[in-house]
Design goal:
heterodimer; A: about 400 residues; alpha/beta; Rossmann fold; Coagulation Factor XIII, Chain A, domain 1; six-stranded mixed beta sheet; about 35% strand; globular; B: about 290 residues; mainly alpha; two-stranded antiparallel ribbon; 2 strands; disordered N terminus
């Protein structure tokens, strides 16, 4: 039995932009342009199944979520939802700071579609799960941010929907609470709840989902087993996806970025601590006597996680007119698990003057490797207890003697 | 363009022990069917309307020393000011009852209208973050403001009762008319509130123009004066204001002990009967794309 079905769903956004000012007040000077966030999207999710939806930023993931949760409506097509649907999108939506924790449970619960009687019967369990019992009757404005988020998630976790929509919500609270959330979600799935999981966290998609869907520019690019779809996903960002147009007016351009593993094979997936090498091909239209190349590793929220650059090594690159290439090597990859988008730049050595900034020219995903933690530090070790003991012994002898 | 949703309950044997509602979301299209589907959904979410109303009342008086007393202070202060201006300075006629009581009877239904309309009109825009994150029937937001204002109105009626006791003004059977009068007022405010709040999502002008509009409107309703003070040649135009029938009749049946002016009330009933369904349909039609434009 189908839990939900998208039939030829398209969604258009009207982008109204002021030509002179960004204020929306001056309506006479605005022009409209259309943006199709989704085009003819078809998919089905069976009852009890868990589907992961992945894709780069702007691929249409959030739009799917908005349509599913009925926050917005499609421009074309039809969505059929069979059962009660709940979204764990923004934890703590509808909380009012002046109200007590208990009052907010009622408020937030009703907004999420629970009846008052239902909330009353689950109240104890909600408070227990959130672990905020001593504070439940004080205004939530005095809550710590952790308590706030835990209470918000706890309400949402008690919705008992037939279909559960999950965004990147697993990253709430401390480690212990996250584990509790994951257990709760796994338990709901065992009880037959259908899941739609929208995430950048490929490991989570792989472990939670039975099937995955890859969106690109509003269209379904691939559908199938998570492993298969994730492989497609990491391949889509490279140059082979876009037409290569050389532009003579530019000084220089990046024409290729390729990642290689320890054996020298092309790869897009690595583990933390793995050796990695990257080859950057460029094309100089003019002679650049003092150039440098940089590589940026961007996280899914567009933050710079790391940068590799030739300019740190002191020697500028003499870029002659025509093609050239540079290879970076890294003995141990320090990035934490996740998906990284790669930007490559060519600039005048030692200055901020950029000749080229190639956005999203590749992407890699990093899985859990050697160690835990938020980043990897290369390290070595040796056993010292023996030497230390000897040293103490000789020291004692010296004092006695 | 309009939101169309169907909520069908499949037979129990298909759905298992707990009935699964089937929801179909289609692109907005125009049909009066949303009036029914909208109301069915609103009924399902009735607890939210109750909770949000309770929430509005609580939040308004939380951490204020006077608390609910503020619901009394405002009409009391207005009554004093209007009595000083229009009774002591300007000597308005007040049809056999003390002017302070006379004007209070105008202030109470008017204040309800003013508070409900101004808060519900901006109700959606002040909940932008909620609207873009969670789905629930959006009309509950303006409705909850109307309900909270109605609660304030009921509290403020304590002053009216106290004043009537003080001046020995008794109630007659005519007072039963306040039930239909208030129902019409709630319906009219809800309709206008739905229209204005949906406009406000696209054009913030509504919120800016609201204080001026309400001030002008107040003087077009018999709040500080009586309908019988309006020159006869203006009356046919004057009675077109739906609030005139509500305010005038509230005063007639409560303190003057007269029957309702059915012609005036008829205009208000007609206005509410047109504005509420139209406002609701327009609102539901806008609701479909509200999260995209807000």
């Amino acid at each position: 039995m189908t839990a939900l079905r998208f039939e030829s769903v398209s969604k258009r956004y009207r982008i109204t932009s002021g030509s002179n000012s960004s204020e929306s007040g001056s309506r006479t000077k605005t022009h409209k342009s259309d943006f199709w966030a989704l085009r003819d999207v078809n998919f089905e999710v069976a009852q009890g199944e868990s589907l992961g939806i992945i894709g780069h930023n702007g691929a249409g993931k959030s739009t799917v979520l908005k349509l599913l949760s009925n926050i917005s409506t499609p421009t074309k097509g039809k969505i059929t939802i069979n059962g009660r649907i709940s979204a764990l999108l923004e934890v703590g939506s509808g909380f009012h700071p002046e109200l007590t924790g208990r009052e907010n449970v009622y408020l937030s619960g009703s907004i999420l579609g629970m009846r008052r009687a239902e909330i009353t019967s689950k109240l104890e369990s909600i408070i227990e799960f959130a672990g905020v019992r001593p504070f439940i009757d004080i205004p939530v404005k005095r809550f710590s941010s952790g308590m706030f988020v835990r209470l918000g998630f706890s309400i949402a976790a008690h919705l008992d929907p037939d279909i559960l929509l999950l965004d990147e919500v697993l990253a709430v609270g401390d480690y212990a609470f996250q584990e509790k959330c994951k257990q709760r979600i796994a338990e709901m799935h065992r009880q037959g709840t259908t899941m739609v999981f929208i995430s950048h966290d490929l490991n989570a998609v792989r472990s939670v989902c039975q099937r995955a869907l890859l969106l690109q520019r509003g269209e379904v690019l691939a559908e199938g087993s998570p492993d298969e779809v994730i492989r497609r996903y990491t391949e889509t960002a490279g140059f082979h996806q876009r037409p290569q147009i050389t532009d003579e007016r530019r000084v220089a351009e990046v024409t290729g970025v390729q990642f290689f593993d320890a054996n020298g094979n092309r790869a897009n997936g690595f583990k933390t601590g793995d050796p990695v090498s990257v080859r950057i091909d460029y094309l100089a239209h003019r002679h650049i006597p003092e150039g440098s190349l940089s590589l940026y590793f961007l996280t899914s929220d567009a933050g710079i996680a790391a940068q590799w650059t030739t300019s740190l090594c002191g020697r500028p690159i003499d870029m002659q007119i025509g093609p050239g290439s540079v290879e970076f090597t890294c003995d141990e990859l320090g990035l934490q698990p996740g998906v990284y988008q790669i930007d490559a730049t060519i600039e005048k050595n030692g200055t901020a003057e950029e000749y080229e900034w190639q956005h999203a020219c590749a992407s890699i995903h990093v899985d859990v490797g050697k160690t835990r933690g938020s980043f990897y530090m290369p390290h070595t070790w040796r056993e010292t207890s023996h030497e230390y003991g000897n040293m103490l012994e000789s020291l004692a002898q010296g004092i006695n003697g | 363009m309009e939101l169309e949703q169907e909520i069908l309950i499949p037979p129990a044997d298909v759905a298992g022990p707990s009935t699964r509602p089937v929801k179909v979301i289609r692109p907005p299209s125009f049909s009066p069917g949303i009036l029914i589907s909208g109301l069915a959904e609103l009924f399902w979410y009735r607890d939210l309307l109750y909770t949000l109303t309770l929430h509005r009342v609580r939040v308004r008086y939380k951490q204020s020393a006077l608390g609910l007393g503020w619901a009394l202070v405002q009409p009391l202060a207005m009554m004093l000011v209007y009595t000083i201006i229009f009774s002591i300075f300007a000597r308005f006629p007040s049809k056999g009852v003390p002017y302070s009581l006379f004007v209070l009877c105008g202030i109470l239904p008017w204040n309800f209208f003013q508070t409900a309309l101004s808060t519900s009109a901006t109700g959606l825009v002040s909940h932008t973050s909620l609207i873009t994150k969670v789905y629930f029937p959006r009309e509950i937001l303006p409705f909850s403001y109307v309900m909270a204002a109605f609660f304030d109105f009921l509290v403020a009626c304590i002053i009216l009762i106290a004043m009537m006791a003080w001046y020995h003004v008794g109630l007659t059977m005519q007072v039963l008319y306040i039930v239909p009068i208030l129902l019409v007022e709630v319906a009219f405010i809800s309709g206008v509130g739905l229209l204005f709040s949906a406009f406000q999502v696209r054009f913030r002008d509504i919120g800016i123009a609201m204080p001026l509009l309400l001030q002008l409107w107040m003087f077009c309703a018999p709040v500080v004066y009586s309908y019988s003070d309006v020159p006869k040649r203006f009356r046919s135009l004057y009675m077109l204001d739906p609030m005139a029938g509500i305010v005038e009749n509230f005063r007639r049946v409560v303190i003057q002990g007269w029957g309702a002016d059915l012609r005036l009330l008829g205009v208000s009933v007609a206005a509410a009967a047109i504005v509420l369904p139209l406002g609701y349909m327009y609102f539901k039609h806008r609701e479909a794309t509200m999260a995209d434009v807000i």
